[in-house]
Amino acid sequence: MTRETPDAKGAQPRDPLGRMIRLVDRTLEAFLVLLFSSLVVVVVIQVGSRYIFNNPTTWTEETARFLFIWLGLIGAAYASGGMRHLSIDLLPVLLSGVARRVLLMALELLVIGFAGAVMIRGGYSLAARTLQTGQVTPALHLPMGWIYFAVPIAGAFIVFYALMHLVRLVQDRPMVEARPGDAPMSDQTLSATLSEDAI
């Protein structure tokens, strides 16, 4: 009886880069679910205390606002990993081959520059200065610096995803992989941008 080789079984080549991206994806997904669930619970408590028990709480509005800030920024970082942000893709669609890859690399470098300079460096500086001043939130009395740390953390994930996109472009591979639950594209513009050389 012969033993089957990995090729005979149709095994896929190892992709450590893909595994790392999927690990970050799953981590962010779990964190976003936690943030959104907490936001829903807090808003329900706020509405119930105000309109049912006629005894509005002071902490729910502030908590909901800060949860929404973290949800929006971390969600933006997650969306950047799947290239789900709104974009004008006229040039990537018109170009093909090496020219399109060079353009996409330049765009990713711009993303890295902005996220690194504004979000990571600027956001960290703002959060650190706020912690030094001892500023706290009115109702929860939490350090405001903790809230501002959402900016550099989100920026770090955006830089991570942009670097992964660059590596895949250098390898001449699709920039992103389909995530579980992703809806099929209704048009070919974005899929053309993400494919290897569709045009």
UniProtKB/TrEMBL annotation:
GO terms for cellular component: plasma membrane. Residues 178-199 are annotated as: Disordered. Coiled coil: none annotated. It is a multi-pass membrane protein. Residues 39-171 form the Tripartite ATP-independent periplasmic transporters DctQ component domain. The complex comprises the extracytoplasmic solute receptor protein and the two transmembrane proteins. Part of the tripartite ATP-independent periplasmic (TRAP) transport system. PANTHER family: 2,3-DIKETO-L-GULONATE TRAP TRANSPORTER SMALL PERMEASE PROTEIN YIAM. Belongs to the TRAP transporter small permease family. This is TRAP transporter small permease protein. It comes from Consotaella salsifontis.
